[in-house]
C-alpha cells in the first residue's frame, strides 16, 4: 500500500506560484489552496500527480497539482508532464463557479444543436424570470451520490425545461427524426410529425 502524501496544499501552491503564471488557469494563486485548479470551484482538494505514481512520478510538489475529485478523475495520466499544464489551461474558464454550468451549455448544444436561451426571443427584462425558473427547476433535479454538484447533462436538462416553460414548446432535438420521437415521448411530450419537421432549415 502506498504511503499517504504528506506535503501540504500550501507547499504545492508555494512551489508552483514561483514557477507557473496563473494567467490561463482557472484559479488565482491567492485562492489556489481552496479552489480546484481546473474548474475553479471551492472544494475539498486532492493532490493530483502530474506524472502518475505508476509511471514513476514522485510525491514532490513539482509533480503535484490540486484538483477537486471530479477534475482529478478527468486529469491526464501520461508520462509527459507538459500535458497536465496544457489540459489545465485548455479546459479552464475565466470566472469562478461557472465551469460546470458552461459544460451544461455545451451538453445542451450537443443535444439540441444550439446554445441555451439564444434563439427563443428573450430580452434582458426576462433575466429575473429565467433565474427564478432555473432555481425552481434545480429543486426538481438531484446530484449523483459523491459528486458534490450537478453534472453537465443535468444542467442541460434544466436549461431545456426552463426553455419549455418560457416558450410552451419542447426544444427541438438535434438527433434524427426517430430519435426525436423516442426522446420526446420518453420525456412525456405529446408530439406530432409537424413538431419534428418544423424549423428544419434554421
List keywords for this structure.
202 residues, mainly alpha, 8 helices, 41% helix
Return residue spans where pLDDT drops below 50 for at least 5 consecutive residues.
196-202
The structural domain count equals: 3
The gross shape turns out to be elongated
Helix content: 40-55%
| Strand order in space, largest sheet | 1-2
E-strand count: 2
Q: What is the residue-averaged pLDDT?
A: 86
Distance between the termini: 58 Å
The profile of the biggest β sheet is: 2 strands, antiparallel
- β-strand percent reads under 5%
Structural class assignment: mainly alpha
Total DSSP helices: 8
Order of helices and strands, N to C? Answer: HEEHHHHHHH
The whole-angstrom Rg is 21 Å
Pfam family, one: HNH
Keywords: Endonuclease, Hydrolase, Nuclease
GO molecular function: endonuclease activity
Protein name: HNH endonuclease
Explain how this protein is built.
The protein is 41% helix and 4% strand. With 202 residues, the protein is mainly alpha-helical. It has 3 domains: 9-91, no CATH class; 99-169, no CATH class; 172-202, no CATH class. The chain has a two-stranded antiparallel ribbon with strand order 1-2. The longest helix is centred in the last third of the chain and has 16 residues, at 152-167. The radius of gyration is 21 Å and the shape is elongated. The model is unreliable at 196-202 (pLDDT under 50).
Compact description:
The chain is mainly alpha-helical. The chain has helices spanning 9-17, 69-74, 82-91, 99-112, 127-138, 152-167, 177-186, 193-197, and strands at residues 46-49, 64-67. Helix content is 41%, strand content 4%.
Amino acid at each position: 500500500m502506498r504511503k499517504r502524501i504528506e506535503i501540504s496544499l500550501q507547499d504545492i501552491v508555494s512551489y508552483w506560484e514561483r514557477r507557473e503564471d496563473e494567467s490561463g488557469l482557472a484559479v488565482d494563486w491567492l485562492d489556489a489552496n481552496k479552489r480546484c485548479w481546473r474548474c475553479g470551484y471551492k472544494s475539498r482538494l486532492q493532490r493530483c500527480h502530474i506524472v502518475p505514481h505508476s509511471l514513476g512520478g514522485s510525491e514532490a510538489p513539482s509533480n503535484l497539482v490540486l484538483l477537486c475529485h471530479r477534475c482529478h478523475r478527468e486529469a491526464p495520466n501520461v508520462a509527459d508532464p507538459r500535458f497536465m499544464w496544457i489540459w489545465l489551461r485548455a479546459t479552464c474558464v475565466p470566472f469562478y463557479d461557472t465551469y460546470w454550468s458552461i459544460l451544461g451549455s455545451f451538453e445542451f448544444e450537443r443535444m439540441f444543436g444550439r446554445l441555451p436561451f439564444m434563439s427563443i426571443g428573450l430580452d434582458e427584462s426576462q433575466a429575473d424570470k429565467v433565474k427564478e425558473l432555473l432555481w425552481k427547476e434545480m429543486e426538481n433535479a438531484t446530484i449523483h451520490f459523491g459528486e458534490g454538484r450537478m453534472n453537465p447533462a443535468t444542467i442541460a436538462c434544466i436549461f431545456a425545461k426552463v426553455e419549455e416553460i418560457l416558450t410552451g414548446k419542447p426544444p427541438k432535438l438535434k438527433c434524427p427524426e426517430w430519435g426525436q420521437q423516442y426522446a420526446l415521448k420518453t420525456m412525456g411530450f405529446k408530439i406530432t410529425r409537424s413538431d419534428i419537421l418544423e424549423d428544419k432549415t434554421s
